[in-house]
Amino acid sequence: MTFSPFRIDVSDEVLDDLRARLLRTRFTGRSDDQPWRAGTDPDYLRQLVSYWIDGFDWRAREAELNTLSHYQARIGGRRIHFLHVPGIRPADAPAPLPLILSHGWPSSFVEMLPLVDRLTNPAQYGGDPADAFDVVVPSLPGFVYSELPDGPLTRAAIAQTLHLLMTDVLGYRRYGAFGGDIGGVVTSWLGTLYTEQVAGIHMIHPPFPASFDSRPLSPAEQAYLDADAAYDQTDGGYSAIMGTRPDTIAASLVDSPAGLAAWMIDKYRDWSDNHGDLESRFDRDTLLTTITLYWASGAIGSSFRQYYDFDHNSPRPDITVPAGFTVSTEPSYANYPREIAERACTDIRHWSEPGRGGHFMPLEEPDLLAGELRQFFTSLRPS
Q1: Domain Epoxide hydrolase N-terminal: where (predicted)?
Q2: Does domain 3-378 fall into CATH 3.40.50.1820?
Q3: Can you give the pLDDT at residue 93?
Q4: Percent of the chain at pLDDT exceeding 70
Q5: Under the phi-then-psi rule, with left for phi > 0, alpha for psi from -120 to 50, and beta for the rest, what region is 150?
Q6: Is the CB of residue 314 less than 8 Å from the CB of residue 151?
């Protein structure tokens, strides 16, 4: 398989239309006395839309993104977009271990960008140049510039696509994988399906076993599962509609940039480690870069596909490759007990609960996470 360079190039027509729609935005009132309790706060959304119109410079962000090495390949007849950044290492150092970094929802390849320099050029951050990695950052199928496959979008199918990207397209014989959220589940499938080529996997969201039937639940496991179910009662509306009526909500979001922003911002605030202050973790330019990519590519509906196709997923076998975890502090992973991960993984070699960093940890805590990834993956080098 071959690949070719790719540039992000949003037309003036698309940007003019976006601005016109933003200028005509109709805002709702707040449903609760407390901001954010009923979803994205209308007052914050007004401020964000105003900045999107008059403060956000997409062309500057587009130019910045295009300084990176973007490519596209056709895998299974469908286009896959990815970044490929070789590691900078001393001439006498061994070839770096390639790492593929996979994002989740509502995210994009932009989430992984703070990790790229830290992993490919550690000397720039005070690290050992010999610890450099080659880094590959894909857009998952259905996200931004990567197309959906013809069949159901299962996590195993995504893993197959990413494995072909690493091996058949880029020619790597052995690599490591990192991910969070959907990208984390895909990473776990890479470690299950390709044990000869995958040196190890690292995630911020530890996996669940295919079944809890092997032994009775411990008190800690039961408490966590009960708390997670209770949290889902307040948070799960988004996934319920995306998993059952994706076309209904997508019709609204692909037509209204303010609606799209509200749908995505709600999760950036709720799932990150921001203590109620969204912009303590993400500046507006970062938030609007990903939202604008979704808008310009029209990909919000296709990003829902893995929710709608969820029932096509089969139970995942045990993960036998070396596994490492830096556990997110977001509400759904609060007090997650390691023993649940031990039901799914037979070889956990790294477990860290740093107490900071949430669902979007590469953006929230890049220095912390890059250090964790270096520590884990350098331990897997052949002796």
Answers
A1: 4-112
A2: yes
A3: 81
A4: 99
A5: alpha
A6: no
70-75 sheet: strands from edge to edge: 3-5, 70-75, 78-85, 134-138, 98-102, 175-179, 198-203, 323-326, 348-352
Whether 355 contacts 329, CB under 8 Å: yes
The residue count of the chain comes to: 383
> Can you tell me whether residue 363 is helix, strand or coil?
helix
Listed in sequence order, the residues at least 6 apart from 208 whose beta carbon sits closer than 8 Å to its beta carbon are 340, 343, 344
Please state, in angstroms and rounded to a whole number, the distance separating the CA atoms of residues 205 and 229: 16
What are the structure tokens assigned to 16, written together? 């003019």
Tokens 């319920």 belong to residue: 240
Q: How do strand 78-85 and strand 134-138 relate by DSSP bridges?
A: antiparallel
Quick: pLDDT tens for 148-171. Answer: 999 999 999 999 999 999 999 999
Rounded distance between C-alpha atoms, residue 343 and residue 341, angstroms: 5
- The greatest distance separating any two alpha carbons of the chain, rounded to the nearest whole angstrom, comes to 63
Are 51 and 284 a contacting pair, CB within 8 Å? Answer: yes
Q: Kindly report, residue by residue over 176-233, the tens digit of the pLDDT.
A: 999 999 999 999 999 999 999 999 999 999 999 999 998 999 999 999 999 999 999 9
CA atoms within 13 A on the CB side of 103: 29
Question: How many Å apart are CA 190 and CA 172, to the nearest integer?
Answer: 14
Q: Is the pTM of this model over 0.85?
A: yes
Report, in angstroms and rounded to the nearest whole number, the Rg of the chain calculated over CA atoms.
20
Inter-helix orientation angle 284-297/42-54, to 10°: 80
**Phi, psi of 312, rounded to the nearest 5 degrees:** -80, -10
Instruction: Report the C-alpha gap between 323 and 320 in whole angstroms.
Output: 8
- 35: nearest Cα among 265, 285, 260, 239: 265
Residues with a known catalytic role: 181, 307, 359
